[in-house]
Design brief:
five-stranded parallel β-sheet; 16% strand; 5 helices; globular; alpha/beta
């Protein structure tokens, strides 16, 4: 089974993260522009026999934001770890009209720096831990 990683967010963020993933040898990637599209990709991948193993996402997005993704994953009974890019999470949660993220779910946060970048080592270490490639 592939370790399919779904990257969700704006075009610039997706391009940056997918490029990083490929350089780190995580080659099975899928992309979605927003949460609603992400849910469709999750279903498509599951149907194709390569279920999404991890989601890396912005929090603030049109159509369906990060809180909406989390709530829909719960409703649809998907147990997929989510990594939110920290540059847009706390502020967006406070301004969001979407109900708060369920308390029994703790998404992973990846530091996103002011230029929009993330560190390769941080991303790789987080993915290895989540995917069980290293001991926790």
């Amino acid at each position: 089974m592939k370790n399919t990683i779904l990257v969700v967010g704006g075009a610039q963020t997706r391009a940056l993260i997918v490029s990083m993933l490929h350089q780190l040898k995580y080659l099975a990637t899928e992309e979605a522009q927003h949460g609603q599209q992400a849910l469709l990709k999750i279903k498509q991948c599951a149907t194709a026999g390569d279920p999404v193993q991890v989601i890396i996402s912005e929090f603030n997005m049109p159509v369906l934001n990060g809180a909406g993704i989390i709530n829909q994953l719960k409703v649809q009974q998907y147990d997929i770890p989510v990594i939110f890019l920290s540059g847009s999470t706390s502020e967006s949660r406070e301004q969001s009209s979407t109900p708060p993220v369920m308390l029994d779910f703790s998404p992973h946060l990846l530091q996103q720096y002011s230029d929009g970048s993330v560190r390769y080592t941080e991303l790789d270490a987080m993915l290895q831990k989540i995917l069980g490639l290293v001991e926790a």
